[in-house]
Amino acid sequence: MPDEAPLDVVTAVDGSTARVTLRGELDLDRAEEVADQLSTLATEGATQVIVEASALSFIDSSGLRALLTAREQIEAAGATLQVANPSPAVERVLEMTGTRALLTRE
Question: Which pTM was predicted?
Answer without folding.
Answer: 0.92
